[in-house]
Specification:
The complex is a heterodimer of chains A (227) and B (1012). Chain A contains six helices and seven strands; from the N terminus they run ββαββαβαβααβα. With 227 residues, chain A is an alpha/beta fold. In chain A, helix 3 links the parallel strand 5 and strand 6. The N terminus and C terminus of chain A are likely disordered. Chain B is α+β, with helices and mostly antiparallel strands and 1012 residues long. Among the domains of chain B are: 278 residues, Deoxyribonuclease I, Chain A, CATH 3.60.10; 150 residues, Immunoglobulin-like (Sandwich); 94 residues, no CATH class; 122 residues, no CATH class. Chain B is built from 27 helices and 26 strands. Chain B has a seven-stranded mixed sheet with strand order 3-4-2-1-15-14-13, with helices on both faces. The N terminus of chain B is likely disordered. Classes of the chains: A alpha/beta (227), B alpha+beta (1012). The interface between A and B is large, with 49 and 75 residues. Strand 3 of chain A pairs antiparallel with strand 26 of chain B, so a sheet runs across the interface.
């Protein structure tokens, strides 16, 4: 019989190294007021494109995007980009119900959009998967670069709120692509990669996703705003 | 303008596009491997040594294994190649005498002044050390029944090795099985490229699994492309034939039982374990214990000692011993080079003749071979000649040839060194002088094999088997001479022909198989499992003759391996690109549809469009004005505008009454253009090929009174969303909205009497609360007047028609006609519905009820529809003609009367009207209804005129007429009792009692006797 040597412990190069390439699949939902740039963020992230004029989303766009975190780790996002209009609010649970992560977007030039974002975050924290990773994204950073007076929400305020609520926080620009990839990468890094295997995109359940408790801390803002 | 001609091009339906999964991604990445692999070179140094549990062996390790010292070039016949250090002066090397003396003083036996012959240090990428007998296994009682588990020896050897090899080298694997130890270290540059390390022990010794014999093996993957297997084994020891069998058995056990963990390839774990043979390169080394057979051991000892004594300056002490021994035997010996195709290995082949005059001083006689001999094997007096003469007697080569072990592609470098066993410990060249005088043998070996070697063997083996089978078949068919068969070009008999292959020069690596003829000096190319082309070259294969601390001499091999290694940074980049491409293909190849709303339907309505609060909604389905009882439909066209087959369906979404596809009042169905509408109605899921379309009908029909009430009072709006989900695609929201047309249905009496003369629709723009602020305009709902008036008129007309026209017969079978639905002559539900909707519309818009029908409608059909509408409307009145409060009063009176109930119709009517008078509007409405029902009953079944002049006896048939009238009274009481009274919900007996009481009251009002 093949017997493991009693003293033949594996070296550091054993299966814990090298043998741990991972491919994890996660459902991500975008929420936020109408016209804050949810679809634009997705378009930038997935296709690296930007349209100045986009029709509002009637429905929920479904896209996938695979990113490599490092040599060993690949994360595939299944992105549900939802309609932001108030009249479709009641349908949002269809999309965040089994989501592993959510990006709640507001427009840094529209004060009301952060209020709306906060409502979404509250709803997510109450109704969604209890381990959902939520990122707050203040979009349209490009608008305030030249005209700082256009800004309606200071970075500090939003950041403080995000820290309090345990959210990832980025100020982004889908137009210039600033912080877009960083936003999704930060989410991917916070996801519990070890437990999540590939699963049917539309299967119910949590896909065996469990978060490590220590992962609830806030990650610092990745923005480079001068405020 | 250019015109484009479409030439009936068939849209190509593509296969579902690739989707990024772990497998597809990995496949895509591997397909581009040339972009992320870069050629790498590595030197692998393998050391093998049976240390015979001797103390001090660990101290010698650094010298020979790491630094390549203690080679005796004259006895090792080093084949100089890249692995041999050049320019290393051996001038100051310690003499054998000093070295052997040092040994006795318990000092290092590593040569002083030896700078090392073999490449070492940081030129080596991977150090592989296989040791045998690191613990004393001679006393079996120590480990019988228990697996040896002392970590001391391992620790000692690890320490010795880590101190010997350059700093920074990291442990890849440490594996011990009793006396067997396999240690693998890699340089800091190589270490990170090694993955999928798996180590396995296979014991074949006592009790089959204990570790005094067996193998420890390690598998690893280098640069993510090249898998290497290192097997350190100690096979059964002993010289007789039985033990040889046992060694072969040991090998088969090791092969059979060595199972490594599955390999992780680009993130995907192979689903099977691998064994020896699945790798790209294998190295098998250790004390394999194969002996020289067929020669008297003593002869070999003496022959070889001639060399150890003669060819260089053996220390005086040893020389004396050797000389003494040699002189003891005066039979001169020489072992001629024996051809390897010599079938017999018996003692006959050992021809002895006087080759050397042993009385001369051999040391001075024999020339230094380095001086002139270019090919040592050509010099009969050379060491190589002696070695070559012995090798044909090597058991390993026999078992390879006989396909008993190591035959399937295993190769060995040329043996240019003395047998490694068995020496007197502490001496450089003195073979076993104990009683046993064991024959010197090449017990210790380093074999290797490439994937190609194994495949080549298997190919030849298959061909041989097939040839043999053909031969046997022919013999079975009675064709003894293969030449008779035209198909056979070459007659082949493996038994006779197998050995005809000329043996190759012993200079070349021995393959143990005869088919491999084109062996040359070129580096051996080998294709790895994943298709990478790797090259291996054996740089060196030699023994360290001047290591004195064990009775075995250590062996070293250096291999140069050219392989393609993955560059992680490049691979990451390629992987990101591949993932992006897959995502792109996946997203662009996703099924998709386009929904086109048919807005023309809305345009038709603009003329009558009422001011709608929904004008803000640009998108979605505008149902326009939606009325009670009137179906309203809109159609959508759904087209597959994607490149792939698309399946879609309306899915449940969170709604007012839980998860449902849409509100209950909305009917959604697909209608395929080319099929019968009924055939594809209400499809759960529709599948369209690219370019195909389907129609979808969304139909609102509001006939539920509860819903009507909610719409009337504004607690509900005709505004909702359908979700059309494309499988594996996006969700489309299909919002829809309509304007509720105010109706007289589902109202209270109090509301109804405030409706202005222009009808309830004139209040359309007002919010619902306004109706209660309207002044009271009527004593009873005007709708009641209108309906009852028309019913009476129509009933009279119907009876008149019946007497005039045979075609129009009032149904007599059912007493409930025209209020009883079962009795209706107009059974076409669609026509009825249409007529009823028209009547409702007339009521709501304060139109003329009679003209709501098409002109030609027979009165009898009109009557039925209006009668139906009346019943429906009465039932929809929220508080009812007789409210729950009024009913409670009536019931209280009934209960209080106990057994003395009123029986006279007039008395009952008086009592009821007295109770109802507290609510005058309800009272008037009730009286109005009951009198209408009376009249209708009278029209349909006129009673004999009792007040006329027939005093003696009623005219003929009057009895029947009275009976029919009675039946109608009862039937009407039954029908209207259900819609007139509002009572709290009761069940069972209580309900039956309440129904009985309602009929009792209504019958009194309808009773003909009351109108004497």
């Amino acid at each position: 019989m093949a017997t493991k040597g009693p003293v033949g412990a594996r070296g550091p190069a054993g299966s814990s190294r090298g043998g741990n390439s991972r491919f994890a699949q996660f459902k991500l939902v975008l929420l936020g007021e109408s016209a804050v740039g949810k679809s634009s963020l997705v378009l930038r992230f997935v296709k690296d494109q930007f349209d100045d004029y986009r029709e509002s989303t009637i429905g929920a766009a479904f896209l996938t995007q695979t990113i490599s975190l490092d040599d060993q780790t690949t994360v595939k996002f299944e992105i549900w980009d939802t309609a932001g209009q108030e009249r479709y609010k009641s349908l949002a649970p269809m999309y965040y119900r089994n989501a592993n992560c959510a990006v709640v977007v507001y427009d840094i030039t529209q004060a009301s959009s952060l209020d709306k974002a906060k409502q979404w975050i509250k709803e997510l924290q109450r109704q969604a998967n209890e381990n959902i990773i939520i990122a707050l994204a203040g979009n349209k950073l490009d608008l305030v670069t030249d005209q700082p007076d256009k800004r309606a929400i200071t970075t500090a305020d939003a950041e403080a709120y995000a820290r309090e609520s345990g959210l990832l926080f980025f100020e982004t620009s889908a137009k210039t692509s600033e912080n877009v990839r960083e936003l999704f990468t930060a989410i991917a890094k916070k996801l519990p990669l070890d437990q999540a295997g590939p699963r049917n995109p539309r299967s119910g359940g949590r896909g065996g996703v469990e978060l490590r408790p220590e992962n609830t801390s806030t990650q610092g803002a990745g923005n480079t705003c001068a405020c | 303008m250019s015109s484009v001609t479409f030439t009936g091009e068939k849209s190509q339906v593509e296969r579902p596009p690739p989707v990024s999964t772990p497998h597809s991604l990995s496949k895509a990445v591997i397909a581009r491997r040339s972009e992320y692999i870069r050629p790498q070179k590595i030197k692998i140094k393998i050391g093998s040594w049976n240390v015979a549990a001797c103390s001090g062996t660990d101290k010698d390790l650094a010298g020979w294994f790491a630094d390549g010292k203690n080679i005796e070039p004259n006895l090792a016949g080093l084949r100089v190649s890249t692995a041999v250090e050049e320019n290393c002066s051996q001038d100051h090397i310690e003499s054998i005498e000093d070295q052997e003396a040092g040994r006795t003083k318990k000092e290092l036996t590593i040569l002083k002044g030896d700078h090392g012959t073999i490449t070492g240090g940081d030129t080596i990428g991977i150090y592989v050390l296989g040791l045998q007998e690191i613990v004393d296994l001679s006393s079996t009682k120590e480990y019988i029944g228990k697996v040896y588990s002392d970590t001391g020896p391992m620790t000692k050897w690890k320490k010795a090795l880590t101190e010997a090899i350059p700093e920074g080298y990291q442990l890849i694997s440490e594996q011990q099985l009793s006396g067997l130890l396999l240690l693998i270290y890699a340089s800091p540059a190589v270490y990170p490229t090694i993955t999928s390390v798996s180590s396995v022990n296979v014991g074949t010794g006592i009790m089959w699994s204990l570790g005094n014999k067996g193998a420890v093996s390690t598998r690893m993957v280098l640069g993510e492309t090249t898998s290497l297997v290192f097997v350190n084994s100690h096979l059964a020891s002993g010289n007789d034939a039985q033990i040889l069998e046992r060694r072969c058995w040991d090998v088969s056990q090791i092969l059979q039982k060595t199972r490594f963990d599955p390999i992780n390839r680009s993130g995907i774990l192979d689903d099977h374990q691998e064994g020896i043979g699945d790798e790209d390169f294998a190295f098998w080394f250790g004390d394999l214990n194969f002996r020289l057979e067929g020669l008297p051991g003593d002869d070999i000892r003496r022959l070889l000692m001639l060399h150890t004594q003669g060819e260089y300056d053996v220390g005086a002490k040893t020389r004396n011993k050797i000389e003494a021994e040699l002189e003891n035997n005066d039979s001169p010996i020489i072992i001629q080079g024996v051809d390897s195709d010599d079938e017999e290995f018996g003692s006959d082949s050992l021809q002895t003749s006087r080759a050397f005059d042993t009385n001369n001083h051999p040391s001075s006689d024999l020339p230094n071979p380095d001086d002139f001999v270019q090919d040592p094997s050509q010099d009969p007096g050379s060491l190589q000649a002696a070695i070559d003469s012995l090798l044909p007697h090597d058991q390993l080569r026999h078992v390879q040839k006989k396909k008993r072990a190591f035959h399937d592609g295993w190769r060995e470098g040329p043996i240019t060194f003395l047998p490694t066993y068995k020496y007197e410990i502490g001496t450089m060249g003195r073979f076993d002088s104990s009683q046993k005088r064991r024959a010197p043998s090449w017990c210790d070996r380093i074999l290797f094999r490439t994937r190609k070697d194994k495949a080549a063997y298997e190919k030849v083996n298959r061909e041989e088997l097939m040839a043999k089978r053909r031969d046997e078949e022919m013999k079975a068919r009675g064709i003894d001479t293969a030449g008779d068969d035209d198909d056979v070009l070459y007659d082949y008999d493996p038994d006779e022909d197998g050995d005809e292959t000329p043996s190759k020069s012993e200079e070349e690596p021995t393959t143990g198989k005869d088919f491999y003829d084109e062996q040359d000096e070129e580096d051996e190319e080998a294709m790895t499992k994943d298709g990478f082309v790797d090259k291996i070259h054996l740089d060196i294969y030699t023994s360290h003759q001047r290591v004195l601390s064990s009775d075995h001499k250590p062996l070293t091999s250096v291999f140069s391996l050219d392989y393609d290694a993955v560059v992680p940074e490049l691979r990451s980049k390629i992987q990101a690109e591949a993932a992006r491409e897959l995502d792109k293909a996946e997203n662009e190849g996703r099924p998709g549809i386009t929904i086109v709303m048919d807005h023309s339907q809305n345009a038709c309505e603009t003329s009558q469009n009422v001011d709608t609060p929904f004008t803000a909604h640009e998108e979605g389905i505008n149902l326009g004005s939606v009325s009670f009882m009137k179906r309203k439909s809109r159609s959508l066209t759904i087209a597959n505008t994607s490149q792939v087959t698309s399946a879609f369906a309306f899915v449940e979404r969170p709604g007012a009454s839980g998860d449902e596809i849409g509100p209950l009042w909305l009917n959604v169905r697909f209608i395929s253009a080319d099929e019968e509408p009924s055939a594809k109605q209400n499809l759960k899921e529709v599948v369209l090929e690219p370019g195909e379309t389907i129609n979808c009908v969304v139909e609102a029909s509001i006939d539920d009174i509860g819903l009507v009430q909610a719409l009337n009072n504004g607690t509900m709006k005709l505004d909702d969303v359908l979700v059309l989900r494309v499988t594996e695609g996006r969700d489309h929201f299909v919002p829809f909205h309509g304007t509720w047309m105010q109706t007289v249905f589902g109202r209270s009496i109090d509301e109804l009497i405030r409706i202005p003369e222009s009808g309830i629709r004139s209040l359309q723009t007002s919010t619902t609360s306004i109706i209660s602020t309207q002044p009271i305009r009527w004593s009873a709902p005007r709708e009641l007047f209108k309906l009852t008036e028309l019913i009476e008129r129509l009933a009279e007309r119907v009876v008149a028609d019946a007497s005039m026209l045979n075609a129009s017969q009032v149904p007599k079978e059912s007493a409930g006609w025209p209020f009883e639905s079962d009795s209706w002559l107009l059974q076409d539900a669609n026509v009825r519905e249409e007529y009823a909707a028209a009547v409702v519309d007339a009521l709501d818009s304060s139109g003329n009820l009679g003209s709501a029908f098409p002109d030609v409608t027979p009165a009898i059909e009109k009557l039925e529809v209006v009668a139906q509408t009346l019943v429906l409307w009465l039932g929809s009145i929220t508080d009812g003609l007789v409210t729950e409060a009024l009913w409670t009063k009536l019931e209280t009176d009934i209960i209080s009367r106990g057994t003395r109930q009123l029986t006279d119709a007039e008395e009952i009517k008086a009592w009821v009207l007295d109770v109802l008078s507290s609510s005058p509007n309800h009272n008037i409405a009730f009286v109005f209804l009951s009198s209408t029902l009376n009249r209708v009953a009278d029209f349909l079944a006129p009673l004999p005129r009792t007040h006329l002049s027939w005093k003696k006896s009623p005219p003929e048939g009057s009895e029947a007429r009275v009976e029919r009238h009675r039946a109608i009274e009862k039937a009407y009481a039954d029908i209207f009792a259900k819609v007139v009274f509002r009572t709290r919900d009761v069940t069972g007996k209580e309900k039956r009692v309440a129904e009985e009481r309602k009929r009792y009251i209504l019958e009194s009002f309808l009773h003909a006797g009351a109108r004497k």
